[in-house]
Amino acid sequence: MKRNTILVATMAVVTLGTTTQSCVALATSSVGLAVLKQILLGGITKGLNIFSNKDSFLSNQLIDAAMPQQLRDVNNTLQKLGLNNLVQKEKEYIAQAAQFTVETSRPILINAVNSLTAQDAARIAQGGTGVATQILKEKTSQQLMAAIAPKVDAKLNEFGIVKTLNNALAGSNLLGGLLGGQNSTSSVTGGISRFASEQMVNGLFNIIQNHEQQNSSAIMNSLRGINQ
């Protein structure tokens, strides 16, 4: 009888311990996920604030680093033709077009952050710095491109830069190769707007990732349940 009592008591302690650990793990996961979301939302706000200001957009190295090689080649060709002013104007128009994408991008990114799960948090905890932004990119990059590309194309055409670039490059034998198509107005129109949109999307993720890296300790500590 005494042995049975001890066995039951032992089982009760084990069950209680397991339940307690599960509750702690659940609480840690909930808190960690909340901290993760807060930091990602901070990175999104930071990036979109930069997009909202033309000068900040133009001077941001993370956005410049996101420029597709094809667009760099176009700009290099223009510079070789002595059209440095046109390159600067193109960059300024792209920066102005970026302002018109902010309110389109914001809800897409916020919804993606709010939909992050405990499984996503576990992947981030195991993967380390940069994984959170990578997951966000996986969830939204195609949607962002589809949403902002028409706006970018409309604005660049409204500013007249696409037509100007087409006229400037019309006599260059490099045009078809640079834009991945025939030497035609349509290749320029589609190419410049597409490359500008890619730069905006990838530049925004560069900023978010940089913000994530700056707050990596807070993210990892919260996900692993380490008190700060």
Number of helices: 12
The structural class is mainly alpha
Task: Compute the average pLDDT.
Answer: 81
Subunit arrangement of the protein: single chain
Which geometry do the CA atoms define? Answer: elongated
Largest sheet geometry: none
Percentage of β-strand residues = under 5%
Helix content: over 70%
Cα-atom radius of gyration: 25 Å
Element-level helix/strand string: HHHHHHHHHHHH
Number of strands: 0
Point out poorly predicted stretches.
Answer: 5-28, 182-187
Distance between the termini: 48 Å
Helix-strand layout with pairing:
Blueprint: H1 2-51, H2 54-59, H3 61-65, H4 69-80, H5 84-99, H6 102-114, H7 118-127, H8 131-159, H9 161-169, H10 175-179, H11 185-214, H12 216-223
Description:
The protein has 228 residues and is an all-alpha fold. The chain contains twelve helices and no strands. It starts with a helix and ends in a 5-residue tail after the last helix. Residues 5-28 and 182-187 have low confidence and may be disordered.
Features of this protein?
elongated; mainly alpha; 228 residues
In a nutshell, what does this entry contain?
The chain is about 85% helix and about 0% strand. It has about 230 residues and is an all-alpha fold. Helix 1 packs antiparallel against helix 12, helix 6 packs antiparallel against helix 8 (about 130-160) and helix 8 runs antiparallel to helix 11 (about 185-215).
